[in-house]
Amino acid sequence: NAGVTQTPKFQVLKTGQSMTLQCAQDMNHEYMSWYRQDPGMGLRLIHYSVGAGITDQGEVPNGYNVSRSTTEDFPLRLLSAAPSQTSVYFCATSVAVSGANVLTFGAGSRLTVL
Amino acid sequence: GQNIDQPTEMTATEGAIVQINCTYQTSGFNGLFWYQQHAGEAPTFLSYNVLDGLEEKGRFSSFLSRSKGYSYLLLKELQMKDSASYLCAVSDSNYQLIWGAGTKLIIKP
Questions:
Q1: Which chain A residue's Cα is nearest to B46?
Q2: How far apart (Å, rounded) are the C-alpha atoms in residues A114 and B71?
Q3: Which of A36, A32, A79, A73 is nearest to A56 (CA)?
Q4: DSSP characters for A11-61?
Q5: CB B104 within 8 Å of CB B88
Q6: Closest CA to B18 of B79, B73, B92, B85
Q7: N or C: which end of chain A has fewer CB within 10 A?
Q8: Per-residue tens of pLDDT for chain B, all 109 residues
Q9: Strand partners, A48
């Protein structure tokens, strides 16, 4: 099992460019989410989905779009990249383990916006 | 507002014991999580506490006091591979996770 697969691992963009971070999972988890991680800050939720066709905003959704057409895939789109979006992005799925919703993270995508 | 506090960095010696504290103020409480994150890698799940008390998992234990808004992660018999950041996260009333900034643990031989 691959678990949660994110691509690309590294990306450099220029301000104003758009791109899509891909996330795929093979665990049949309904819940998927995108986080960003910045130095000195906790993980911040960008968008999440509780199942195919359903998405919702997290704490920091501005500048990002998501869609969930299948259970397996949850891409994150940057519409017009800004330097403030330089960050490490993690996709995560969730499953209940002994009453806890435990997150399984992808390896991360490091994005630099110049 | 919602807030999770944990020390930025701690140093300990191989073979010793270290306690990483986490205090929280959140709107509601539906459990507290600890994750481990090695440099350049993804966080991985360590423990979950929803009731007061100590949960033990091998060399790692996690404690929770809901009345004090306090948790700690205890690591025993430290090994070099335990050098990592340890993230505390609280599930709030909406079951959304609020994350601390993480504690970087440095293990010295």
A1: A102
A2: 40
A3: A32
A4: EEE-TT--EEEEEEESS--SEEEEEEE-TTS--EEEEEEEETTEEEE-S--
A5: no
A6: B73
A7: N
A8: 789 999 999 999 999 999 999 999 998 999 999 999 999 999 999 999 999 999 999 999 999 999 999 999 999 999 999 999 999 999 998 888 999 999 999 999 9
A9: A33, A56
A51: its two tokens: 């199942």
Q: Which residue of A has its CA nearest to B101?
A: A42
Q: Which of residues 60-99 of B touch A (CB under 8 A)?
A: 87, 89, 91, 95-99
Structure tokens at B34: 């600890």
* φ/ψ (deg, to 5) at A54: -125, 120
Output the six-digit token pair for B39. 């440099």
At which residue do the structure tokens 């963009």 appear? Answer: A13
- What is the DSSP pairing of strand A109-113 with strand A10-13? parallel
Block residue for tokens 């678990």: A3
